[in-house]
Amino acid sequence: QGNKEIENQIILKKRYSDFFTLRKKLVQRWPGVYIPNIPPKKAIGNLDNSIIETRQRILNKFCEKLISISYLSESEEVLKFVTSNDSSKELEKLPGLKPEEILFKYQKAIKDYYEAYDLKFGKEKLDKFKKLLTSIETTIKVI
């Protein structure tokens, strides 16, 4: 199990400013969508090991939350962040989006989500739920 966990990890060396720019761009280009928070910037004492470790842990949680949201983890912003050596610069180049572009992006994200949903699995769950309701109804009649 430990090896599986290591296989699924990506190690990135990024500056705090890269994470800050990523979050700023996600908020700008995905308005109204939950974007996980990052720790605030600290001007004094930011080289203290305990502060660095805490910030690193919070930034790791930020990444975990981000990749758990499929349409964000596959977004242009996150791809640029992961693949670019100078991600802040690359992210800053991304233009703001027009309302119709945002709408298209949301429609695609929703469509992709529902297409990925396995209807057979959904039907099985509904059948189990129906059986449960039937057994409850039978029990209630007996009572």
Show unreliable segments. Answer: 1-5
Oligomer: single chain
Could you describe the largest sheet, including whether it forms a barrel? none
- Bin the strand percentage: under 5%
Question: Compute the gyration radius: what is it?
Answer: 22 Å
Distance between the termini: 48 Å
Query: Treating each run of at least 4 consecutive H or I residues as one helix, how many helices?
Result: 8
Short description:
This protein has 143 residues and is mainly alpha-helical. The protein contains eight helices and no strands.
What do you see in this structure?
There is one protein chain. With about 140 residues, this protein is mostly helical. The protein is built from eight helices and no strands.
Task: Describe the SSE topology.
Layout: H1 2-7, H2 16-29, H3 49-68, H4 70-73, H5 76-83, H6 87-93, H7 99-116, H8 119-142
List keywords for this structure.
mainly alpha, 8 helices, 71% helix
